[in-house]
Amino acid sequence: MSQKLTLLFDLDGTIIDTAPDLINAHNFVMEKHKLEKREITDIKKLAGKGAWVMMQRSFAEMVVDENLKKEMVTDFIKFYAKNIDKESKPIKGIKRFLEWAKNNSVSCAVCTNKTEKLAIDLLKKLNMINFFEYVAGHDTFDFCKPDPRHLTNVVEIIGGDLKKTIMIGDSEVDGQAALNAKLPFILIKNGYTEKKPDEIKHNDIIEDYSNFDILIKKYL
To answer: 17 CB contacts (<8 Å, ≥6 apart)?
Structure first.
């Protein structure tokens, strides 16, 4: 294998700030069904485990009919798919870092609980897809984070070495997946979680990707 290191990135809140487009899609659905809309600050307690869980968290006891829940989630996905890149933007420094990784034999892949199709579409629209050797969504395999196989399968597919692999994410789901896979975990602050940083086990912590190459060099 040619790569010196493999980096697995979560997507939402980790490499792309998707909060504005997620909450816009959420509020479109809530307004359509005459339910309470949410503020963008609520995204931390809603997102992180895919569209179904996100909407379930928001429904709470307001919606009990299972068919209506399915309809609302479908509405969410349809609206979001059409407006996926309206306000979403890469996290500070990530594109520069990905260029550095590409030039230094550091392989990068995405492990997200977004659907594979939506993840790839968003990365294409933000001109980031070519930085990643593989994109695994929650529907790529028969399991997803925090199941360690979501990570280990990707490393195997791209020909990486688990002993030279790091997971980067913004939530306890990412941290638990890394722990389950026995991988080092780098936590990015202010992501889609209500947990405090000291409540999520991590090896390193960052604000954004400014000078991230300096941190990664210590793992090479």
So the answer is: 88, 89, 90, 91
Could you confirm whether 10 is annotated as catalytic?
yes
- pLDDT bin (cut points 50, 70, 90) of residue 48 is low
* pLDDT over 90 (residue 59): no
What's the confidence (pLDDT) of residue 63? 65
Helix (H, G, I), strand (E, B) or coil at 33: coil
Encode burial over 149-169: b for 16+ CB neighbours within 10 A, e otherwise.
bbbbbbbeebebeeebbbbbb
Residues 6+ apart with CB under 8 A from 6: 106, 107, 108, 109, 155, 158, 160, 161, 164, 165, 166
Cis peptide before 146 (omega within 30 of 0): yes
- Say which residues have a Cβ less than 8 Å from residue 158's Cβ, sequence separation at least 6: 6, 107, 109, 133, 134
Cβ-in-10-Å burial (0-12, 13-18, 19+) of 66 comes to exposed
Helix (H) or strand (E) holding 9: strand 5-9
Return the SS3 of 38: coil
Spacing of C-alpha 170 from chain mean position: 8
Under the banding of pLDDT at 50, 70 and 90, the label for residue 38 is: confident
Tens-place pLDDT, residues 109-137: 999 999 999 999 999 999 999 999 999 99
How many residues does this entry show for the chain?
Answer: 220
Given the residues 10, 12, 17, 174, the one annotated as active site: 10
* 30 sits in which H/E element: helix 19-32
